[in-house]
Amino acid sequence: MGLTHEFFLVRSESDDEPVEQVVLSDNLVLYIQDSLRWIPSFNPSTQEDYFGLNYHGITLIRHEGANLLKDICLSWSRLFSLAPSTFQLTGDFVSDDNGNGYYEKLNCTRDDLTKSLLTLAAIAEMAFY
C-alpha cells in the first residue's frame, strides 16, 4: 500500500482520540490538491493559519474550513461517480533511468473512491456540531 493521509474528527484540539476516520491515498490527495488549497486551516506545529493541508504533518480544519471541505469532497465524489466502475487518473510526471519521462497511471475503483470522499464529507459536516 502506498502513502496515505488520515482524516479524522476529534472532539477538541487537545483530544487525539478519533471519533470518525477516513484514509485517502496520496495519489488522490495530489490529484485534487489544487481545490484543497482553498480550505482555511491551521498548522498546530507552527501555530499559523493558512490554506490547504500540511502535507508533512497535522492540519486542523475548523468550522469555516470544514464547510468548504465538505462541499469540495461532495463535488469530487459527484464527478467521480460518472466514471466507469474502474478507471485511470493521470498521476505525477516521472523519469526512468534513461531520462525518458512519462505520466504515471493511477488505477481507481469508482465505488471505493466515491465512498471515501462521501465519508470525508460526512466527517467535515460533523465538525459543525
How would you sum up this structure, described in words?
This protein is of the alpha+beta class and 129 residues long. The protein has one domain. 35% of the residues lie in helices and 30% in strands. The chain has four helices and six strands, in the order E-E-H-H-E-E-H-E-E-H. The chain has helices spanning 26-31, 33-36, 63-80, 110-126, and strands spanning 4-9, 20-25, 40-43, 48-51, 86-95, 101-109. It has a two-stranded antiparallel ribbon. Strand 5 and strand 6 form a beta hairpin. The longest helix has 18 residues, at 63-80. It is globular. The mean pLDDT is 88.
Summary keywords:
alpha+beta; two-stranded antiparallel ribbon; globular; Coproporphyrinogen III oxidase
Number of strands: 6
> Rg from C-alpha positions?
16 Å
Give the strand order of the largest sheet, numbering strands 1, 2, ... along the chain. Answer: 1-2
The geometry reads as globular
Instruction: Give the quaternary arrangement of the chains.
Output: single chain
Give the number of domains. Answer: 1
Average pLDDT value? 88
User: SSE string, helix = H, strand = E?
Assistant: EEHHEEHEEH
Helix content: 25-40%
Strand content: 25-35%
Unreliable sequence segments: none
Count of helical regions:
4
> Span from first to last CA?
34 Å
Strand count, sense and closure of the main sheet?
2 strands, antiparallel
Structural class: alpha+beta
Write a brief structural summary.
With about 130 residues, the protein is an alpha+beta fold.
How does the SSE layout of this entry go?
Blueprint: E1 4-9, E2 20-25, H1 26-31, H2 33-36, E3 40-43, E4 48-51, H3 63-80, E5 86-95, E6 101-109, H4 110-126
Helix pairs in contact: 3-4
